[in-house]
Specification:
- By secondary structure, the chain is an alpha+beta fold.
- Among the domains are: about 100 residues, Serine Threonine Protein Phosphatase 5, Tetratricopeptide repeat (Alpha Horseshoe); about 80 residues, Immunoglobulin-like; about 80 residues, Immunoglobulin-like, CATH 2.60.40.
- The protein contains 9 helices and 17 strands.
- It has a 5-stranded mixed sheet, with no helix packed on it.
- It starts with about 30 loop residues before the first helix and ends with a strand.
C-alpha cells in the first residue's frame, strides 16, 4: 500500500507515512483483503488513541512536539519566574510592613513610658538598686518634669545626690522643698542631717528660726540650746543685787552689760553685781558643743535704795524726875548718830553704841540712821524734860 501524498510504500499497520508524516490513505491499487486489513488497523489505532495510547511520532512530529514542549516549558518557566518575583515582592512588602508596625509599637510604648510619672520613678528606683545613679537622676528629673510638685520625686532626687557624693546639690533641693512645703517633716529631717554632716551648725540655727510647727521644732532639740535665764527679776530693786545667768549643762554663757552683742562679750562665771544707784542692761546668749548659739535674752536691772526708817527710841520723850536711860534700836547693818540741842546729826556726830542718859533741863535729842550703803534716814527728834 502506498502513501497518497508522496507515493512512498507504507508499512503494514502504519497509519502515518514514514516519509511525509501524512495520514495514510488508500490508493486505487489495493485489493479487498488489504482494504479490510487497513480498516481493522485503523479501527485498532483509533481504539488505542481513544484509550490514551500514543503512537510514536514521526521525526518531524517529534521535532514539532519538542519545540512545542520547549515553548510550553519556556512559558511555564516565565510564568513561574513571574510568580516567584511576585512572592519575593510580597514577602519584602510584608517584612517592611512588619518592621514599620513593630517600630510603631516600640515608639508608642516608649512614648507612653517617657510620659509616665510612675514608670520614670520605677526606673529611677531600679537604677538606684543597680547603683547607676546618673541614670537614676535622669529618670527622676523626667518624673519631675511630668509632676513638678511631687514631694516624693524631690526627696528621691536629694537621696540620689547624697549617694553620688554631691551633698551640696542635695542641700539645695531640700532647702527648696522646705520653703515650698514647710510642713514636710521628712525634708527638714534630711536637711538637718546634711547640715550636721557638713558641720554647718549655723545653718541649722537659721533654719530653725524659720519653723513655727512644734512637731518640726522637736527635730532641732539636739542642736539648738535653750536661751539662758536670769535668776533675778528685772526691774528696780531697793537693795544691791547679784544676778546669776542660768543655762543648760555643757553650754557656755556669754554676756555684756553695755548693750553690745553678747557673742563678743565675756564668758559668764561669777554673778553680776548691781550696786546702789546703779543700773545695767544685760544681754546674754548660750553656745553649745555644736557652736550653735541660742536665742538671746536681755534684761534691765536697777538698784534704787530706800531711805532707812527712823530709829526706834525708848522712851521717845517726856518729863522725868529720875534719871532715865534712853535705848535706841539699831537696824542690822546700820549705824545711829545723835546730837543734843536740836542740831541735825551727821556721820560726824556721836554714834550710838550704848544707852544714853538724860541731861538736866529741857533738851531735844536728834537721831539718824545710816545704812551700810550710806543712805541716811530722816531726823528723829525727841523732847525730854529732866527735873532732878
Amino acid at each position: 500500500m502506498k502513501c497518497a501524498n508522496c507515493g512512498a510504500e507504507l508499512k503494514v499497520g502504519c497509519i502515518y507515512c514514514s516519509v511525509c508524516g501524512k495520514e495514510a490513505q488508500i490508493v486505487s491499487d489495493y485489493n479487498l483483503l488489504e482494504d479490510d486489513f487497513l480498516r481493522d488497523v485503523l479501527k485498532e489505532n483509533e481504539k488505542k488513541r481513544t484509550e490514551g495510547i500514543k503512537q510514536k511520532p514521526s521525526p518531524v512530529q517529534e521535532k514539532h512536539t519538542r519545540k512545542s514542549e520547549a515553548n510550553q516549558t519556556g512559558k511555564k518557566a516565565k510564568k513561574g519566574n513571574r510568580r516567584h518575583k511576585k512572592r519575593v515582592v510580597f514577602a519584602i512588602v510584608a517584612i517592611i510592613v512588619l518592621i514599620v508596625l513593630v517600630t510603631g509599637i516600640v515608639l508608642l510604648v516608649n512614648h507612653g513610658r517617657n510620659n509616665s510619672y510612675d514608670y520614670q520613678m520605677q526606673q529611677a528606683r531600679s537604677y538606684q538598686n543597680d547603683k547607676n545613679y546618673r541614670e537614676a537622676e535622669s529618670s527622676v528629673k523626667r518624673a519631675l518634669e511630668l509632676e513638678p510638685d511631687s514631694l516624693e520625686a524631690k526627696l528621691f532626687l536629694a537621696d540620689i545626690y547624697v549617694l553620688r557624693g554631691d551633698s551640696l546639690k542635695a542641700v539645695t533641693v531640700l532647702e527648696e522643698v522646705c520653703k515650698e512645703q514647710p510642713d514636710s517633716k521628712e525634708a527638714y529631717q534630711k536637711l538637718i542631717q546634711l547640715y550636721s554632716e557638713r558641720k554647718d551648725y549655723e545653718a541649722i540655727r537659721v533654719l530653725c528660726e524659720q519653723v513655727d510647727d512644734a512637731e518640726i521644732l522637736e527635730l532641732f532639740s539636739e542642736y539648738i540650746p535653750e536661751m539662758p535665764e536670769f535668776d533675778t527679776a528685772e526691774g528696780i530693786h531697793t537693795e544691791p543685787i547679784k544676778i546669776e545667768i542660768l543655762a543648760e549643762e555643757n553650754c557656755k554663757i556669754y554676756y555684756t552689760i553695755d548693750g553690745t552683742d553678747p557673742r563678743q562679750g565675756l564668758e559668764f562665771h561669777t554673778p553680776i553685781s548691781v550696786e546702789p544707784d546703779q543700773g545695767v542692761h544685760i544681754r546674754a546668749i548660750v553656745k553649745n558643743n555644736y557652736n550653735i548659739y541660742s536665742e538671746e535674752v536681755e534684761g534691765d536691772f536697777y538698784v534704787e535704795l530706800m531711805k532707812p526708817e527712823v530709829p526706834k527710841v525708848t522712851p521717845s520723850g517726856g518729863t522725868f524726875y529720875n534719871q532715865q536711860p534712853i535705848s535706841v534700836e539699831v537696824p542690822e547693818g546700820c549705824k545711829v548718830y545723835y546730837t543734843w540741842g536740836g542740831t541735825t546729826p551727821t556721820t560726824e556726830s556721836r554714834q550710838y553704841t550704848e544707852q544714853i542718859y538724860l541731861p538736866e533741863g529741857n533738851n531735844i535729842l536728834s537721831l539718824i540712821v545710816v545704812d551700810e550703803y550710806g543712805m541716811t534716814s530722816d531726823v528723829l527728834k525727841c523732847n525730854y524734860i529732866y527735873i532732878p
